[in-house]
Q: What sequence folds into this?
């Protein structure tokens, strides 16, 4: 695990050097926006005929260069990489460095029994303190009150407060399983003696049953855990890049840069190119984070991402694209209505409300172990499907045709939103001096 910590330290140092070098280099050059605009205006008259996407592709390329050269992108990417590395490396390191300790209540204690308990604890490197209990009822009361973590009822049974999962690799769980096996074998020895027949009984000895005061909870599967991580990733990436879209459109309008651009390209091409460029940057960053996480987990031997479900990963990435395609048009249209940052903040709240609803409901369903009816309904609504549908995929509660229906609904809704947003953008982006009301833009005939 020291190797894993060293990897994180080296990675953090390398990212810091890159950020500082690129920042110092950027301070001597033109700003990314001015450089991209100059390049665009120089090549726009002839490059459109040679590019598959024409002027839209040129605008997308300018946006990609501007975003990836920006200080915010470098800093945020560095923070995300370090956070992912810490999430993969630190938990196993803490687990191995802190094996833990517990109080063990012993009913019908004897020197031999206590020696066995201490010997098993030492073998799994788990520190225990023995507490004599007068009877089993008192011991269970102490267990419920968390005064002890385990009750040993002679050689009859072990009692824990919460079930010990077979997949639990903590020192405490290993101690319970090892002690159950040891005391089970000892019980067989006492019952069988030393004859051959009794030795045969010992050979077939089973571990003592471990009873719990609370009912067992269903263990989360790998696909469900992957869906949970995917929902969080979709929300973080969408929040970041949709904010970029909103702020970028507003800043170009406020600085009058958009007037220069619209002298060369049509409004729809400018808007589509901007959204495409930011979307490409988002997918590059998300893909790099996923690849880095899988590679680092394999290098340091971490089990955090071991067995990640490929189908759920693919579904999460697909809905990240669909979610950005749907929301980016709305955020861009809202940005064209504003001229100041305080106006942007007031517009972002209602736009993010359905996204926040879908995220909270999906996250709750993924954490609870059973998606509710609300999650299943939201999986077919385009504003919330990017969060709800990957959750259903993780739980295996959606067929391929249901997934396809949700995708089709999202694509149809995106087309409708794009047409409306392009209309709003075309009519509002050149109106300056005050905040433009959506009602005025919709009812206006100018520029229609």
A:
């Amino acid at each position: 695990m020291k190797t894993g910590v060293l990897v994180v330290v080296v990675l953090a140092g390398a990212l810091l050097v890159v950020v500082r070098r690129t920042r110092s280099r950027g301070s001597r050059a033109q700003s990314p926006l001015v450089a991209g605009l100059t390049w665009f205006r120089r090549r726009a008259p002839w490059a459109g005929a040679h590019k598959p996407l024409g002027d839209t592709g040129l605008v997308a390329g300018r946006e990609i260069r501007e975003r990836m050269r920006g200080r915010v992108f470098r800093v945020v990417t560095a923070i995300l990489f370090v956070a992912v590395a810490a999430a993969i490396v630190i938990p196993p390191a803490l687990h191995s460095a802190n094996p833990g300790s517990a109080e063990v209540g012993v009913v019908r204690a004897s020197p031999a029994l206590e020696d066995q308990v201490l010997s098993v604890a030492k073998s799994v490197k788990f520190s225990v303190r023995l507490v004599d209990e007068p009877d089993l009822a008192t011991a269970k009361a102490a267990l419920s009150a968390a005064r002890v973590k385990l009750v040993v009822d002679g050689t009859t049974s072990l009692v824990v407060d919460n079930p010990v999962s077979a997949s639990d690799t903590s020192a405490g769980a290993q101690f319970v399983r090892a002690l159950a096996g040891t005391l089970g074998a000892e019980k067989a020895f006492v019952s069988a003696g030393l004859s051959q027949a009794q030795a045969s009984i010992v050979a077939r000895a089973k571990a003592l049953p471990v009873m719990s005061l609370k009912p067992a909870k269903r263990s989360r599967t790998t696909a469900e855990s992957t869906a949970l991580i995917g929902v969080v990733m979709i929300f973080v990436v969408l929040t970041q890049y949709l904010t970029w879209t909103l702020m970028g459109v507003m800043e170009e309008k406020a600085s009058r840069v958009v007037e220069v651009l619209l002298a060369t390209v049509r409004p729809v091409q400018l808007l589509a190119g901007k959204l495409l460029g930011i979307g490409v940057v988002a997918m590059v960053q998300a893909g790099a984070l996923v690849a880095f996480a899988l590679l680092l987990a394999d290098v340091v031997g971490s089990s955090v991402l071991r067995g990640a479900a490929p189908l759920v990963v693919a579904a999460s990435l697909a809905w990240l694209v669909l979610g950005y395609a749907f929301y980016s048009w709305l955020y861009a249209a809202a940005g064209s209505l504003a001229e100041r940052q305080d106006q942007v903040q007031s517009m972002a709240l209602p736009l993010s409300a359905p996204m926040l609803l879908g995220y909270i409901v999906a996250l709750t369903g993924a954490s609870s172990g059973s998606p509710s009816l609300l999650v299943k309904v939201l999986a077919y609504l385009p504003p919330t499907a990017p969060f709800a549908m990957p959750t259903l995929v993780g739980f295996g509660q959606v067929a391929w045709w249901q997934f396809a229906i949700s995708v089709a609904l999202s694509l149809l809704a995106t087309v409708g939103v794009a047409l409306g947003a392009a209309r709003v953008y075309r009519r509002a982006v050149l109106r300056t001096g005050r905040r433009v009301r959506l009602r005025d833009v919709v009812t206006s005939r100018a520029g229609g």
User: Anything to note?
Assistant: Confidence is low (pLDDT under 50) at residues 1-10, 22-41, 43-50. Residues 2-91+221-443 form one domain. The longest strand covers residues 101-107.
